[in-house]
Model the fold of this input.
Amino acid sequence: MFPESTSPSDSDPVPIARLADPVEQLYQELEAKIREYRPKDDLTALEKAFRFASKYHEGQLRSSGEPYMAHPVMVAHILADMRMDVVAMETGLLHDVVEDTSVTVEQVRKEFGPEVARCVDGVTKLSKLDVFSAEDRQAESVRKMLLAMVEDIRVILVKLADRIHNMRTLGYLSPERRERIARETIEIYAPIAHRLGMGKVRGELEDLAFQHLEPDAYEEIMGAIESKRHSNEEFLVEIRQTVESELRREGIPARIDGRVKRPYSVFQKLRRQKISLDQVYDLMALRILTDSVKNCYAALGVIHNKWRPIPGRIKDFIAIPRPNLYQSLHTSVVGPHGQTFEVQIRTEEMHRIAEEGIAAHWKYKEGRKGPAADDQRIAWLRHLVEWQRDVQDPGEFMSTLKVDLYPEEVYTFTPRGKVIVLPRDATPIDFAYAIHSDVGSTCVGAKVNSRIVPLRSTLKNGDIVEIMTQASHEPSKDWLAFVKTSRARNKIKHLINAGERVKAIEIGQKYLEKEARRLGVQLSKVTKADMERVSAEYGLSKMEDLHAALGYGKFSARQVLAKIAPGVVKEEEPEIPRPYVAEAPTPAGAPGTARGKDGDGVIKVRGVDDLMVYRAKCCNPIRGEAIVGYVTRGKGVAVHSKACPNVQNLMYDVERKIEVEWARAAEDSFPVRIIVHTDDRPGMLNQLTSVLSAENTNIRSLEAKTETDHDGGVVEMTVDVRDKKQLEKLVATMRRISGVRDVERLFH
Ligand code: MN
Done:
């Protein structure tokens, strides 16, 4: 037991003196209420929860001036009225301790076990959620999210009970807070209750909120109901007696319930039908509850035999249930004094489902989804109904029930409580783009529930996602592999293309400058107007576009220079194959440029055809080798062998990594430098060259040296090979020559 502030050594859990305490009294009433419907339940844990919460809420007051603890006890009362289990009521008693006191979820777990802790945690999370930020009312999303993010439906039920009590005591708050809470109730919580089929809870929430939101309309409707109360009541008594005796005569067992309609539903009717209050004739309704479907129809027959039905107002939701499983017969008839009233007829079972929260009405009025999604939800509801029938113990029923109402969506939110609805398996990148494309594009990292996660991780319901951005950052191509939303995909593609254009402009400009120097054109003397004239000749409006086109390899620099300086450069002049120089990359596929021995058109950048590509001189990769591209600053794409040690150093900047592959055209060959270590003996060189010519390998250069430090010789050569296979074969053949100690490939 917990030490009491007044008498810490007190061992009696319920000392007589404490009964004077109104909160204590309320608690004792709660226990009594529970014992009525769960006489066998052990309430030790419940009392422990009460003492625990009382201790931590000690000294806190509600706006009404009552001790704070009165609120959680009343919440537990409401849950008891719903016939909830002990875990739910413990949660009700503890629902505010984590949010409003120093208690942690961990502490709740230690004291009350994992189930209660999980529920308290769930309720706390819902409370922290600013589901109703004024700028951004996403009622539908919020409702869905609330339902989707709880794993245990008891969390929602405790939250609804909390809301009912807060609404009942709303009068003590400032008008602003009152309006805000009432609006949240009518837009979020009442529809949730409705969706869960909890007709009674929904009704109370709506009427309480209505009272605060539309005080004038509320007064008017209540006034009208009140002024007719006497005659209405008399009328209901009369009708009821008639129906009772008629049904008894037919041998139909029935419970009859006469009622005045709820003020909010009258208000909605006024608004929907655009009529005034005195045109609402059926403020009253009669409900007949019987034992079987057969007797429902029999009762309908009796009613129609007695009073004239209004055509078009007979609705058979038993033969054709509403898609949400609501079942009932509805009819409106003209009563004995010409008054119209509505009669609903259903079985006790159908009634329980409609009132207690099993038949969810949500699809009828709010469902917007396609048939597949609906089928799943209906299946869920059907299960709900079946379980409810099978499982005697409602506690067991509740704890086996996991909510997954929206399996195709995931509900996440920003640190400020805005809901972001994403497809299942969406990633932080999708989230970032859903907020704003700038946030997406500059995203460098993400925190989910305050923890840093990989950008490719998937988000779960209820995740709070914080995106870390960096102004200069650009989206990575890799993201395309895992983003789920088309919005993110399109934005990333767009930006990558734009980024590649920037690179192409840079490359094109360098290329033009280099060629100009080589061909003796002084670009500095060319005016901007001249440049633009030349651009226009290519159908391009800006110089930038011309540079980009050069960078993409659409034209050769020579062609462009011939137009810029016709006196210096002739367009028709045959191309002189240029030696391969890494610093002066050749645009891949540029017409008129060399594609021969050193041609780099043999490598393609995957997905982007026209980027300038060159083989890195550090590893000089040849066809067939695994390669990787690296976007250099202003020099195009350097292609390295994947085995190249430089690659490891370069790839820290993964953003600049680009996938490349060998193009299909296999005519080209690559110069490769090879060193052969041999015994120093005559005839060695001859043997080597004959092997090479037997293999049909062109030798570009060959030089034999004698190593001075030991008794061997070294032959250094450059040979042309088509691909890795050919090179490997060549090396193997050379190694088989007697006297060859080793064959080595030089990379620079
Ligand atoms: Mn509360």
Remarks:
- The pocket of manganese (II) ion is lined by residues 71, 95-96, 162 (CB under 6 Å).
- Residues 1-12, 358-405, 573-600 have pLDDT under 50 and may be disordered.
- The two ends are 81 Å apart (CA to CA).
- Residues 689 and 699 are 8 Å apart (CA to CA).
